[in-house]
Amino acid sequence: MTDSHIAQNSTQADAAGIKVGRSVFKRFLVFLILLSAVFVGVSLPVYLEYKNGVQEQLLANEEVAVASAVQMIQKEMYEQLHMLDMLARTHILNEYLAEGTAAQKLRVQKMFETFSTSFHRYDQIRVLDNTGQETIRVNLVDGEGRTVPDEELQNKADRYYFQVKKSMHPGQVYVSLMDLNIEHGVLEEPYKPTLRFLKVLYNKQGEQAGVLVINYLAKGMLLRFRQIMSQREGQQGMLLDGQGYWLSNYERGNEWGADLGRPEHKFAQFFPDAWSVIATNKSGIYENEAGVFRYQSIEPLSFLDSQPAHFRMEHHPLITDESFANANWKLVVFLPRQLINSHSFLNQPLGRTLLILVILMLVGMAFLGAFLTVQRQLRQEKEQQVLALLEQQASIDTLTGIRNRRSFYEHGRVELKRALRYKEPLTALMVDADYFKKVNDTYGHAVGDLVLKELARIMTETLREIDLLGRVGGEEFAVLLLRTSLPEALEVAERLRAKIAALKVSMPVGGSICFTVSIGLAVLTKADQSLEGLFKKADVALYEAKKQGRNRVVSYTKEMSEP
Distance (Å, rounded) from C-alpha 226 to C-alpha 234? Predict the structure, then answer.
């Protein structure tokens, strides 16, 4: 049997194999689609119902955390209101308000120091006179209450929490927004989340005698909130103020956007659709593609009869309307979609095993045909990759990575024909490294190779993408400048020569060398009908550049003699 017969039989076998594979594959697809449709039609409604049940169970589990967090926060507010009331009613403070002696002032300071040291949650306890000037102030420093000297007391008349006293009625309590404390116009560091509880003080004559302000450090409350919210893996609990800024976030860097001048650190920026619902409703559940949000208005200053007994006020304080607005907080528990999915049956080992078995059952009958088809496709792709690799090797100079002589002249002839047809300017450059043999003889071929690589790199960076560049000899490079006239070509060639002359090539053994190039230039004319002829003129110009002393650009003229 001849070689031609063997080749013919091989081709026919391949064609038959492809035909059989396609036939089996088509039957496989039809069978798979039918079985999949039946399976999905029966199982999908059941699975969706089951998945909703999983989601409801996860939400039910979070109710314990939500209730615990709400009660904890309400308890904290309840205690601070009573602490404020207790201090305002003390005999020691009222004696000082009535008489204001130095001894009475000292007793008040000692009482405040004891109070601050004992409870560890009041950063400042202050008495301000009717002008806003601090008359007594105790700070919590390193766990101890310390009285601030009179010369360091400040006037707080311009602070918002003092301004509200003008509109307060006797017996009323004001609770500020929770924010980061500011001293002398600067945020304290480390940050101190603070709530200010304020009550107007009266003397025995019923006249305003100043205000009592306690700065409650909310750091402990927020820490307990985060502990409650983190009791289950994957739970993301958040506490928001009325504007949607985070007072507490599982991503700590997003907290206190309003105080830190970061308006983008806001719940609405991350979940705009969810915030529009959460902001306008007291409680509920909202679901979107990201996951499920369980939200609850906390209202920590509302102590109604419906609340547990330990939250009821025996003597309900008169809390200002603004205080309720300041504490209009939202508790949000976010269950990411990924967390919900992780609890479904299909994400469990048994569920995954059953799903795999079903899939294997559906594809088993067509496995052989699919396998043969895939193998054929992989083989073809591999062959194409090998051919592409070989084509690249045949057209690229391995040392410099640019076109080799064969590839350059193949593409150059195409560009020459196009330039002649459309009468576009075309310029040829022959570039030769000066004294290259001396470089090889002096420093070795390894350094010579580095010189050629750097030369190719500089030329590639200097020329346009549309220009053709190739290595056509040992140290000779050819360039075709497309749609480039003689003045433009001279400018490009001179720029190229100057860049190379300024280049320093680092040698492996240390030090560096410099080198130059000579460039011959020829412009396409009507008389030029071949690429070889055009470059022959460029080569003549290159020879002339060498004669004139090298490191220069010479344009071809008819008067030049061939070497």
Answer: 13
pLDDT 10s digits, 258-314: 999 998 999 999 999 999 999 999 999 999 998 999 999 988 888 654 454 444 445
Give SS3 for 513: strand
**Other Cβ atoms closer than 10 A to 295:** 23
CATH T-level assignment (fold) for domain 14-301+316-347: Beta-Lactamase (3.30.450)
Q: How many CB atoms lie within 10 A of CB 509?
A: 9
What is the enclosing helix (H) or strand (E) of 137? strand 134-141
Secondary structure element (H or E) that encloses residue 500, with its range? helix 486-501
- Two tokens, residue 147: 């009285």
Query: Distance of CA 452 to CAs 405, 443, 507, 543, Å?
Result: 15, 14, 13, 20
The secondary element (H helix, E strand) that includes residue 405 is helix 405-422
Using the 8-state DSSP alphabet, how is residue 242 labeled? T
Output phi, psi for 266, to 5 deg. -140, 145
Distance CA 301, CA 312 (A): 11
Taking the whole predicted model, whether its pTM rises above 0.70 is answered as: no
Q: Do the first three CATH levels of 14-301+316-347 and 405-555 match, i.e. the same topology? A: no
The pLDDT tens digits for 9-44 are 566 656 656 765 677 777 778 767 877 888 778 767
CA distance 164 to 149: 27
Q: Are 541 and 521 in contact (CB under 8 A)?
A: yes
Strands 246-248 and 283-287: unpaired
197 strand-pairing partners: 175, 214
Q: What is the phi/psi pair of residue 67, to 5°?
A: -65, -40
State the number of CA atoms in the 13 A half-sphere of 355 facing the CB: 13
Domain parsing of the chain, residue ranges: 14-301+316-347, 366-394, 405-555
Sheet containing 468-471: give its strands across.
Answer: 468-471, 476-482, 426-433, 517-523, 553-555
CATH 3.40.190.10 fits 405-555, yes or no: no
Cα–Cα distance, 296 to 281 (Å, whole number)? 9
Which amino acid, 491? Answer: E
